[in-house]
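Notes on consecutive records. When two proteins share a document, each keeps its own sequence and its own token line. Never mix them. Below: protein one.
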Amino acid sequence: MNPRTPLRASLLCVVLAGCNGPEREVRNGTGSVEPGSGGAAGHHNPAPQPACTPGDIRDCSNKIEGDGGAILACVAGTQACGADGQWLPCEASLADLDVGGADQPNGSASGADGESQFQLTSLTAQPCTNNQCDKACAVFPEESGITCEESPTAGGGSVSNLPSGFQNKGLKDAAHPPSTAGCSSPADCQFDHYCDPNACIGSNCGLCKPWATGAYDTNSTKPDYTLKVACDGKIQVCNRGGATAPSGSTITVLSGNSSQLQNDLGKCTDLSGSIVGSCTVPSTIPPGGCIEVNNCSTQLTGTKAAVVNSPAAPGTVHEEVSCANNWSVAHPFSDECQAGYDVRVERYTYSASCAGSQQPRWTLLAYNATLLSNSSGTSSLTVNVEASSNLTDLDPLCTGCTKIAYAPTTDPAICSMGGPSPTCPKQLAVALGTAYAAAHLQLEFRLTPTPDGKLPASLNSWEVSYTCVDDQ
């Protein structure tokens, strides 16, 4: 294969084929007749002609083909002749492409710990023991699994437990008097809420709604910081923008009397409250993610206001969608934290190695996930991918990665080497384009809990394979 010619694999199909014997019968030299096909007018459909002798056994294979007939994988098996003289299905399961045997030194992998710092693991590629079509096939078998982590503060403090005066100052819409008009801007909705212009009370449209777990503005290209209601001296800072929020932003804590809240909530400049302390966002936050910040505990007691990434406060400020929705409060009435699950993002890099002048080709991805549902919706798994000839060129935040799987919306929770076809397994060449021939691959897994944050998503295992071809 010419390494400069991309593998055409845009259409996945499963082919069951015997190694011997015709698949259709040619009769009288006039063409082929399928079993059950119609004959000439006025004649009964002919009975299927025996294709084999009952009890006969022949070799067969089950293949994964790409567009253009490129065979990516196959498993050999046998096929028996049934009592009706017709060949039974090939007893060769693509699920048997699982690896086995001793590790081989070609290929290595590394994992990211959520902070985008690659951590080397002991995982090495193993030979594909049952891929009869490709003796150079190698697979990285990941079996440790990852899941959304439960957090005792994931839900923050309860907004409904705040005094009505606090609610009304942070949520300015028709549902929170004295306002009778709907919300119209980010400044109207604090406490990790957003303005939904299509939600109405009577003729007044525009209501502040809490962001669902894992949700964010998919149309934005910048981070967008928000704060949940503080609880137990801790506060959850979230990113509702479409780009990863950097670490280091400052959370500023201010005195929280009613007058100050009235003047400051929703403002980006000219803070009137007295600053009583601050703390720092300790890590990056993926789109839709939230993290707990607990180094403000000495300041977040009693009644306080808090703002993150404010241009009007001392400390590091990062560019974002809007600074007007960055406010929240701490109050004794809402000091009990609500537990739940947070979004989890993990990234893994894989390096293929081939002998001599051979070049790597990334081929297939299979995975096994557990996605749970409740009345709020279903947890989900998103898989993104990119490849590069240089390991250092892989984006540690996977900003330019291509989505290859989204379960359960467009893909199944269990996507194995054995199907279901034509969706699974995932053909890496389709997602990577010309980069499918690069030596280094990065996979990003995003696990999102149910919208209410009560049930997790789990990735139990996955496999990624590559092969080596001659450099022509």
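Protein two starts on the next line and is unrelated to protein one.
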Amino acid sequence: MGVEFCMGNALSNLIDEKRPELEALCRKHRVKTLEVFGSASDGRFDPRRSDLDFLVNSVPVEKVQIAPDYFGLLHDLEDLFLSSSSRRSPCANYEQVNLAACGDGAT
């Protein structure tokens, strides 16, 4: 399974820095593609105010696995990008990680 990341230039350094962790999370939660969208993809991203928006396309799984994979990925992305004490990243002021699903990942 290959993992593909699509994003605007505003986050490319941060994504590159965390690429090994992101790839591991994608494998763990059966993600085919993980894309950044919103302000991060169109040049309006402001690390002091913007949240992180991800679009996820999962590989087909049994219906009972959809929720655990989706919410597991969401929580793991929050842990990766937001600090545990303030739920904010030490390198930026992200307030929130958002996750949207696309496609039909159920078999």
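For the record: Strands lie at 4-6, 31-37, 52-58, 97-102.
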